[in-house]
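Why predict the complex rather than its parts? Because the way molecules touch one another can change local conformation, and only a joint prediction can capture that. The input here totals 444 residues.
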Amino acid sequence: MKKNELFARLAFCIGILAMASLAAAQSAGGVVAGRYIVELKSTAAPSKVISAHAVAPDLVFTSAIKGFAGFIPPGQLRALEKDSAVASIVPDRVVMAIGTLGKPNKPAPGPQAQVVPAGVARIGANPAGSILTGLGIGVAVVDTGLDFNHADLPVAGAAYSFTAYGTSAQDDEGHGTHVGGIIAARNNTIGVVGVAPDATLYAVKVLDRNGSGTDSTIIAGLDWIHANAAGVYPAIRVVNMSLGRQGSLNDDPALRAAIKSLYDDDITVVVAAGNDSLSEVSQQVPATYPEVLAIASATALTGASKYRPYPAGIAADTASYFTTDGGFDTSTGIGVTISAPGEDKEDISRAGMIQSVGILSTKLGGGTVRMSGTSMAAPHVSGVVARAAEAELPGSVGVETIRSMIMDHALNVGVAPYDSPTWGYTFDGQREGIVAVPELWGAQ
Ligand SMILES: [Ca+2]
Ligand SMILES: [Ca+2]
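Output of the joint prediction:
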């Protein structure tokens, strides 16, 4: 079989998966009927506007932005639109965890010694060779919550958490717990080890038990982080958001303003680029915001292949077949900052089907599990930023300094990510490389 026939064969198999991921992406971004986000001018008092208009919002924002969100009847909505205290009103939209494609496959049974996951090793974070560990750095995981009871997860107490659902930020879905373990699973004798194993995680639950939230629940989480980042110990320096929806740069000024408030406080917000290879990062919210670091997914290891026309398999540092990408535009600040491992590898079956072998990390309820996605790529970078913040490299940890250090010192920059051989993949024109830990920044 010739090379282009192979690509056609892979295209057929992967096309099905790509359509499934597109369908999921289309539900994210949908408007919640009757629900609105009201952003007020920075000098306004939300409580006064709420009582003056007799509205009953379920979320009120007082720190990252001023405003509120909830179901607002048409009459009150028209009155609010005329109020000079109002900066913007937009419909609330559905946001989803950007996770996991295919079945999370279980680790092999056997002795429960600590494993260094392939992604952690690939970016140079193996604890055996590490100087930095994220000690004294707080990382907020804006997600489905974190498992407060997991023995391998260093989570700040429940008193230092936020939830948009009920009274507890305890994870009830599993996505946030997996993301948290990639950032900071403890360096001990069990489970896995994260990129920054001495960092402290803060649970910010903005997605429900189905991995679904809205722009307004995310703003509420960011509002809590903005109000508490400097007052908690350790202070929150990094925010991980492995979530998103289809959208555009200006479709929710309130959400962007909340992220900008964190950016202005030198808090680095790391966002998954998206799991739709047919989409550009510029079409994903919040990944399109210039204030965030948008992270695409690549393989950490070379995969196995039983497919005779392609015996070498898919190499390490190849763009994941599912990743959203889009080259970084220095004039707008929009685009993928860096790629990071979002899966261990991609195996090819005898019939030419690709099987993603996910990243091994902490599982809700204890132990470990594998998951794949840009959701898993972003927390590798959050761990790297935590280590940089710990080192205060290179003297300042402003977000743009962090971004340029990461981009300038990537592994295989100019070469990786390699092209995926699948139909959904289109090269975005930049081989931005794979993120590296700060210990490697001086060596390149
Ligand atoms: Ca461990
Ligand atoms: Ca690229």
